Each structure stands twice: as C-alpha cells, then as structure tokens.
Amino acid sequence: MNPIRTLKCILMVFALSWPGADAAASRVDVIRLTGPIGPISVQHVTAAIERAEDDRSECLVILLDTPGGLLQSTQMMIKDMLASNVPVVVYVSPSGAGAGSAGVFITMSAHVAAMAPGTSIGAASPVGIGGAVADSTMQEKVENFSVSYIRSIADKHGRNADWAEQAVRKAEALTDREAVEQNVVDLSVATLDSLLIRIDGTVVEVREGSRVLRTKDAEVSIREMSWHHRVLNVLSNPNIAYLLMMLGFYGLIYEFINPGAIFPGVVGGMCIVIGLFALQTLPINYAGLLLILLGLGLFVAELFVASGGLLTLGGAVSFTIGSMMLIDSPDPYLRISLYAIIPAVIATAAFTLFAVGYALKAQKRRTTTGSQGLIGETGRAHTAVDDRNGKVFVHGEYWFATSETPIEPDTPIRVVEVNGLRLKVESLESGTDAT
Fold first, then answer.
1. Superfamily of domain 24-229
2. What is the edge-to-edge ordering of all strands in the sheet holding 27-34?
3. Within 13 Å of residue 153, how many CA atoms lie on the same side as its CB?
4. Quick one: 157 exposed, middle or buried, by C-beta within 10 A (0-12, 13-18, 19+)?
5. Percentages helix, strand, coil for the chain, rounded to the nearest 5?
C-alpha cells in the first residue's frame, strides 16, 4: 500500500474522530415566541424551522412565553414541529414567563422541553377559532378532542399524559420543579447556555430517524421575527384591530357626509380592510359586530331625526355591548379592553354629533361666495331698471340687471336671481317680499 495514501487516511480518521471537530462547526438557531398564539406565530415558527433545516442547524430553540392562543393555530404549529427534520427545543423562559393554554401543547410537542426557574406551565383549556363554545355539548366535544390530542403528543415523547389531560380538563398548572418531577418537561435550567450544555449528547427522534444533539460548543444564532411578521403581529392585537375598525368607520362616515373629501374615505377604507384582516385571526362574535354597526347607525340617525338624544343613548349602549361581545373568548388577553372600548364609544358619539353635525349644517348654510352668493344681497339701482335692462350697484360692483316691475334710480334693491352676468332684482320700497 502506498504509505502516503495510508497516512492521509489515518489523518482523516483522526480529524473526524477528534472531540469537538463537528461541534466547532455546529450551530443552534434561537427564536422568541411571546404573546398570544395566532396565525402570525405559526408563520414565524414555520419559517424558523425551514431556515434551520436549510442551514443544517443542530436544533431550533424556541424561547416561549405565552398565555395561550387559538387552537387551530396551535395545531398548525405542532404539525410543523412534529414533521421537522431539525430537533425543536422549547425553553419556557425567562423567569416569570409561562406556558399557558396553547403553550402547554407546544411545550409537550418539543423534542426537548425545558423550563427556567420561576416559570410555570398549565391551564390548557382550548380556545377555538370562529366563535366560542355555543353549548355544553359542543364544549364537551372540544374538550374531549383537546384531551385526546394532548395525550397523543405526550405519549409520543414519553411525557406525563395523565397530567396533560388534567391540564385540559381541570386547568391544572405546575412550577418548573414540579414539571420536571412529574415528567412533564425534561429539565429545569437557568440560562440558555446551561440548556445547550445539558442537552448535548441527547438522542432525539426526528422525521428521518434518530439524531444526537451536539450543542455544547455550538454557535448560537438568534433569529428575530421579521419586520412584516412584527407588523402583522401588532395588528392582530384585539385592541389594535378594534381601534382600526373604528377609525375606518369614522373615515367612511365623514366621506359619506362630505362627498369628494377623498382622503378620509381612502384612509377609512384602508383601516377597515386592515382591521378585518386582524379580526379574521380572532374568534369573532358576529352578534357583537352587528350591535356595533347598529350603534353607528343610530348615531348617524340622530343627525336627521329629532329624538331628544334617545337615538344617541341607544347607539352608545348598542356600541358598548357590541364592543364587549366582539371578541368571543373566555381568555382576557383575547378580549378588547374597556380602556379601549369606553374612549372609542365617547369619541364616536362626539365625532358623530359634533363633527359630522357641523358638516351637515355647513352644507345647509346659504352660499356666500361666487355668483350664487349674490342672491339675497342688497344694493341700489344705479339707473332705471325694467324687464329689459338697467344697472345696479351691489356688493361694491356694478351689474346689469332686470326687474319684473320698473325701478327708479337710487332705489334700494335686493338680488333674487343670477343669470350669468345679469341680475334679477326687486325693489325693497315696493313692499314685495320686503321684510
């Protein structure tokens, strides 16, 4: 055998077997998942998994802190996690964070689940999209499905399925220490660096088979949410979506009252479209939406009907109740805050009664500029005026004029009609229509 070739083979084997040879080139991707779980959260996690697979990262670490979210979005996220060929590590952190409701499902779906000291997990009652539970039968169906779903996830990763069921049925919760003791999560660690050291050498099952994690000396790459996902995430906030809808209604109402204003109509239309996008990601109660529209209708009707304020009062009540019912969820983080509802009701009533009312009065006010603004103006006859010709002095100017009855020079007159550059006038001394 060629001694040079033999030496090359020995050196290659030595290099590949040297401790840390692979670890030095390995990388761990890290993302943050905070706030309610919704469609934007799913897009963020899906993009991170795809990027980690393309970059051949050792694993994807999700720093989780959520009060819960939508069941449909949670299911979509879990499907991506279970189908991932990159190990997904869920780390509930920092201290004070929690994995509530949907967060329990996500944590138990991870290949490795960890919690920081001072965190909690539990209370996994589901929230369905498209409306809350209508009756006890439907509630039981949703609950039973959620139980079977979380038990299957727990069994797949060898975690405590009995506790997972109680988290759904009885909203039970655990601290980080209790979660480790009851085999709900794998470990409790204080920092991300400690986590990567502890899970080094762990064998996990991914889509294509077993994989050994080499994370001890891996390069950590923190991937922030993309700017468009951040914008969409902010817009998905129930309070932001609600306020956008209100601004949209203001703009359209103002455009309706003042045709041709353009800017309020364009901005109002955009706000409503964006608001509708945000609302379609939330569990909407359409009865609440109809009450809001009814309230707006009553506000506008007050401008045309003398009701002594009854329509305004009815509009305010309808608007308030509809706003409180709009987001149909038992979880407070998915409901619209009263701090947003009350100012919106007051502002809407004020806008309708004062701003729009003023615009209507301005439309009914007599024209004071242009040729039509001369109607009703008074002056004096400069020459004799008859039904064929004459000249008058009105508004500091001399005008050709006619009159159905003859008018003597220097007689006080009033303009009754404008025909191009010729005025039709009447005498104020004749008693005709004089006041």
1. 2-enoyl-CoA Hydratase; Chain A, domain 1 (3.90.226.10)
2. 187-188, 112-115, 88-92, 59-65, 27-34, 219-222
3. 30
4. middle
5. 50, 20, 35
Using only the alpha carbons of the chain, give its radius of gyration. 37
Average pLDDT, 10 consecutive residues per value, the chain (435 residues): 48 44 69 88 92 93 91 90 94 94 94 96 67 58 88 93 92 94 95 95 91 92 83 78 83 74 82 75 73 82 71 84 74 72 81 65 58 77 88 86 89 87 82 42
Tell me how crowded residue 243 is: count the other CB atoms within 10 A of its CB: 18
Q: Which two tokens stand for residue 195?
A: 């986590």
Q: Which fold has domain 371-427?
A: OB fold (Dihydrolipoamide Acetyltransferase, E2P) (2.40.50)
Strands 397-402 and 422-427 come out as: parallel
Per-residue tokens: 31: 């993302």
